[in-house]
Amino acid sequence: MYVIQCHLFCRFNLPEINEIVEAPPTAELQPAEQKQSDEVDLGLTYEELSVLGKLRRPLGYGPYSMFVHLLHSWGEEKSAIEIANKVKHFYVKYATNRY
Known about the structure:
Elements: H1 3-12, H2 17-22, H3 38-42, H4 46-56, H5 63-74, H6 80-98
Helix pairs in contact: 5-6
């Protein structure tokens, strides 16, 4: 339990804080009944997004150098086409949301 959770729970008797903290990340663009998650919306897991983001910045990799790097590190788990599609998808989303 985080310190702020303990504080809110103990001081103000807010047990709902655990629900909020443990809820999956979402943009909340759809009604709560429809299960929405950022990973599904993005088409990438947070782990993949973290790797792609670190390659983009601070390393400054472009699409081709990112693909070549990931081919070596993800080559055992994913096919070259899967990797290429993830890199392409990442850059499309990146360009769409950049400005």
